[in-house]
Amino acid sequence: MVKLPNKDSLSANHAPQAAVNEIRTNEELIASQAIAEENEEKYRDFYDNAPISYQSLDATGCFIDVNLTWLTTLGYERNDVIGKWFGDFLHIEDVDHFKVNFPAFMKQGYVSDVQFRLRKKDNTFIHVSYEGRIGYTPDGQFKQTYCVFKDVTELYAAQKTIYDEKERFSSLLDNLEAGIVLHAPDSSIIRCNPRAAELLGLSNDKMIGKVATDQDWKFIGEDNNPLLPEEYPVSRIISTIKPINNQILGIKHPGNNNTVWVAVNGVPILDSIGRIKEIGISFIDITERKLAEEKLLESEASVKRRLRVIEEPQCDIGEVHLSDIIDKDDLKILMEDFYRLSGAGSAVVDLQGNVLIAIGWQDICTCFHRVNPVTKQNCIYSDTVLTTGLTPGSVKLYNCKNGLWDAVTPIYIGENHIGNIFFGQFFFDDEVPDEHSFILQARQYGFEEEAYIAALNSVPRWSHVMIDRIMAFYARLATTISMQGYNNLRLARALSAHHLAEAKLGESEKLLSRAQEISHTGSWKLDLASNKLTWSDEVYRIFGCKPQEFAAGYEAFLDFVHPDDRAMVDAEYNRSLLEGNDDYEIVHKIIRRDSGEVCYVLERCIHERNEAGIIFQSTGMVQDITERMKAEELLSNLIENNPLSIQIVDKDGFTIKVNPAHTKLFGEQPPPGFSIFNDLQNKGHGEFILLAKEGKVVHFPDICYNVHDVIPELPDNPVWVRAILFPLTSSGNPERF
């Protein structure tokens, strides 16, 4: 209370007017004090009931004050908190984080979005985000902290859900046997999985950003001819805006001659007005299948050549290849024995330059001349062109184009020259090799000079007499091979062609069965008159049965088709017959008998016609494409079925895709030409965009969005959101968010 002056003092010491003034002054002081007390009460009420939790710590990190909202949020009484150390209220894993960062906070003077897990009175935890400043005394010394926090538990859970989904998606993608590549509209690669990088022969880092026609790889068609850039899968999709299915091509790996054969499928991902946003490509390794098919074709061609020569007396024996008539294994053993006795290396080569047997070849040939593409062509030229014009039983010495001596004697069948036996490589013992020319040759072709000259010095030296003796042996051997081959063919013509044909047919069927097993592709034939369906072993395996477990039939086949697809498959097949189509193709689901697993298959067939043009039989194939379908479905399902609002944008913020949850939240999809990045920039969040483009995950402060501002035709409906911006590439500059 303010002390008032008494009457005596007024009358004795002051004039009446002065006394009046002093009384008025004291009254004003009393009124001001009452207002201050009222304001302090209002401030305390506002402070305690503010919708945000407030706390203040001293220099040791102990509580000086908290508001009522803080206490209510965490369930404590004030005496549970004041004077206690802040670290006692933290999750044990966050205590060290506080110890390290509290001194930094006092030094810096402020903090923003510092997250902790706070322990509530019931020993549960909430995730909170702190904003704070340091208060100072008038002389600039630390006084106390002023901090507020907001409960971000739900936001943290949402972030964790997104992160877990992203990790699950990445894990599934990374472990698929199929290669997956995502291209931008300009064909540049924006994402790929490890299997794709492995099949394409580059690391993940080197893949990102490359266009589909990059010179680091070359594609070849099934005919082994290079594909033109416009024939590449991505180029075809860009030009047609249509999917591609099962394009077979070979990938030439950068830096070597290896070829990986793949079956490619691709699909354009379009925006709302039909423009390409992305191109998804999936491919599987079919190299084993391709090689098996080539081996099968060569085996069939060899069988046909032999049968034609055997069954048609008028057929030219010269059509037979050397590999068709010699027993390479037995002949190789004989030549190896001779090499161990004499030290004389040799080879059997057909007229196309294919080396069928090679024994005791010199390192200068196997490690150098046959490795370099140019000198290898020299070898082939020497093996073919320089050996023309040889007569039966003759021997020819020649100096090959790489500077070594070889000797050759021909192999004939009847009057047809079909191959040669070579002896070499060597020098004569009475000559001195021109080492300088070989040094120049090493430099010209990039051979390691010291190793090349060492290989040169290890080439054997033979006398003319020894060469004559060795080649006399090989000439007799060539004559023996020729006579035996010719006699065998004559004898075979006298034998029953049917037995040989059956044997080779069995071999071809085994190879075909193996090729089908490798490629998960079975074959079938349906006789329309008898309704008899014949399946290969692989069809049984695809449908989860043991090969030839039961007699196949059309109705039995339909039983394997998934109930959802059964009517469609039956209708489509019958429609192709009624319309007189030449072929039929469909993708549908089946249920495997052994496991109950739902799988996807690709069915193709051609309808065969009789002389009257009526379809009497369907011959087709079925291929298990489950892995491919899983890869394609995975990309869309994870986004479409997510309960969180997801918007995928390109590097400039233009929308690529939104999920149903996003449309439900905002009431409409973003219009064409709308950039979320430009909008965020206008809202003052440009620095967050820059951080995201550096590859960082960005948590935005709460943002208010009103679709009416973007699409005036829609009603005014502000929505507050907590946004997180994820870059969708693991390295390099992100192309999508």
Descriptive notes:
By secondary structure, the chain is an alpha+beta fold. Helices cover 42% and strands 25% of the residues. It contains 25 helices and 28 strands. It has a six-stranded antiparallel beta sheet with strand order 7-6-11-10-9-8, with helices on both faces. Strands 12, 13, 14, 15, 16 and 17 form a six-stranded mixed beta sheet that branches. A five-stranded antiparallel beta sheet has the order 2-1-5-4-3, with helices on both faces. Strand 14 (396-399) and strand 15 (405-413) form a beta hairpin. Helix 9 packs across helix 16 and helix 9 (287-311) packs antiparallel against helix 17 (497-519). The radius of gyration is 43 Å and the shape is elongated. 23% of the residues are buried. The mean pLDDT is 80.
Short description:
This protein has 737 residues and is an alpha+beta fold. The chain contains 25 helices and 28 strands. The strands form seven sheets. It has a six-stranded antiparallel sheet, with helices on both faces. Strands 12, 13, 14, 15, 16 and 17 form a six-stranded mixed sheet that branches.
